[in-house]
Amino acid sequence: MSSTFFGLTIAYSGLNTAQAQINTTANNISNVNTIGYSRQVVNTVASSALRCYQSWGTTGTGVEAQSVTQHRDAYYDEKYWNNSSALGFYEKKQYYMNQIENYYSETVSNTGFSTIYAKMFNAMSTMQGSPGDMTVRKQFVSTAKQLTDYFNQLSTKLDELQSAINDEIKTAVDDINSVSEKVSILTKQINVIEQGGGHANELRDQRANLIDKLSKIVDVRVDEREVRNSADPDMKTGATYYTVYINGQVLVDTYEHNSLAVKSRELEELHNQSDIDGLYDIVWEKDGNTFNATPSGNGGELKAMFEVRDGNNKENMQGQVVEASAKTITIAYTNTTKINELNLPPRGQLETNSTKYTYDDFSFNTNEDGEIESVTFYLNETLNVLEQKNVLSKPLQVGESVAYMGIPYYHNQMNLFLRNFCEAFNNIEIGSEDDTSPDRGVDRNGDPMNAFFIAKDRIDLQVEHQMRDDYKSATIYSDEDKEDDTKKFESYYLLTAKNVSIAKKTDKDAALFATTTLGNYTDGIDAAHLIEELQKLQSKVELFRGSGGDSFLQCMYSDVTVDTQECKIFTANFNNIQTAISDQRISIAGVDEDEEALDLMKFQNAYNLASKCISVFSEIYDRLILNTGV
């Protein structure tokens, strides 16, 4: 049977619970502008009924505030993290693509390729009318130098962007490590509190905020499982296993966190010919294994950085191994047969049969048409007999194939245009290899013309071989023991946007530029037979992607604008999705001022009523004690 004063106990339970609800509401209102705060609620249950041995059997004993928990839905958290990764990926990529687009854009204030290219050929037309005029000649040479300077500067800008992205990758790795460490610490603190019967709401909010931040950098998946008593599986301990996966790999395992590190690529590990030194790869600090920064999923900002930094549109050298020895691997059936399309770094890394090798030089064999038939790589390692056998007939690639038009792709496209253009230009200027041939290009003084466009600090790209010794000293990658090595120097492979220039002698003395051939030199210094052929290079000769040289910028700009526009569209789409998901999350977890104000009034009334009950019981007990008796 219940106590005579049992009513006070019931009223007190209501008073106490209403007080807890008012305090929790005050806490919610105080954090209405706190980023990442989840609305908290007091979970109440009716107290266990008391058996009173009356006809009704039991009587209520009041209310209990069972717990204070956060109002959060894991389903919307997961949707938010997945979308955040996609949004981070396209936002970051758009940021970089906008910069590349600006590099190629041509406005009134930004003189670009088309203006400089047209200016050079206009100066050439003027020179055709009076090739003997030194002033006109100097003007043409000056415009040609502007063209090479344009490509030098553009290449430098791309290098600077690649370097900036590389630095940002290191910063992203530092951020990931910082988040992983904090998440493991918070998980331990949460488990300590919740094993004692409490609810670590604020700590859980902090941990979720860290996952929000992490989800923009990489793909994130979280798995939280209850820890149960091994002796009694139905018994919960209050703790949880909390595992965080990034790009499908474990980053945090409850109290343990795995750190990432950046590793600079060595000179012999370059993936593309134009890559700058010191590009970072990401590895796990504990074992040095490679971290997959470019998963098949969205990948977040980190994947965008790698794609723009390393994207070669899968135009790196690929082929089939046809021969292997202790120090060489030879491939054929390559994805390119044109030397000018080569994107091979002088030293680099090969991957075949799931094994990586490094090479310090290469040579190629060509057919009568000058097309590549096979490429031989000279390895740093020594292959044993079994390894030689295992690589035969296996596919091989140089560096990494990245299916995106990133910085290496634009470098390679510029190189391709310049090699085709400079080769065609120099061939017209030089004419025959025989100095006594009537087709031999000669300068204003009647002397044989050498190459006009060259690779500065590399080699003088001319079709003459008496300077072979100079060629060998011009590059650290040559080897006199390689019979086919000379083909690299006879080709335009070493000419790039970084080093293209005009011959120093011609730059100093415009009279050394050839406007006619030896056979037509008798027509005098005003002969301009070669200029007529050179002018065809402006638009009438196929130089780049099936079009004339004047279409170069159009092709490049179409590439970059298509990717930039795609990024803009997807960024807008995922922003809209993010807004919708955020609204759904906030509708559940967010603090609504109006709702909290109503709750405050509701809980205040409950408190007042509980107080009134105590007051009523007080009068009853006064009557019972003071006004009754014998």
Short structural description:
This protein has 630 residues and is α+β, with helices and mostly antiparallel strands.
Task: Report on this structure.
With 630 residues, this protein is of the alpha+beta class. The protein has a domain at 1-71 and 593-630. The protein has helices spanning 6-30, 74-104, 113-129, 134-195, 201-217, 300-310, 385-391, 407-430, 468-473, 486-490, 504-508, 529-535, 552-589, 593-626; strands at 40-46, 50-51, 58-59, 63-70, 220-228, 236-246, 249-253, 256-257, 260-264, 280-284, 318-324, 328-332, 348-352, 355-366, 372-379, 395-398, 441-442, 453-455, 500-502, 516-517. The strands form seven sheets. A six-stranded antiparallel beta barrel has the order 11-12-15-14-13-16. The protein has a four-stranded antiparallel sheet with strand order 5-6-7-8. Strands 1-4 form a two-stranded antiparallel ribbon. β13 and β14 (355-366) form a beta hairpin. The longest helix is centred in the first third of the chain and has 62 residues, at 134-195. The chain is elongated, with a radius of gyration of 38 Å.
Outline the secondary-structure elements:
Layout: H1 6-30, E1 40-46, E2 50-51, E3 58-59, E4 63-70, H2 74-104, H3 113-129, H4 134-195, H5 201-217, E5 220-228, E6 236-246, E7 249-253, E8 256-257, E9 260-264, E10 280-284, H6 300-310, E11 318-324, E12 328-332, E13 348-352, E14 355-366, E15 372-379, H7 385-391, E16 395-398, H8 407-430, E17 441-442, E18 453-455, H9 468-473, H10 486-490, E19 500-502, H11 504-508, E20 516-517, H12 529-535, H13 552-589, H14 593-626
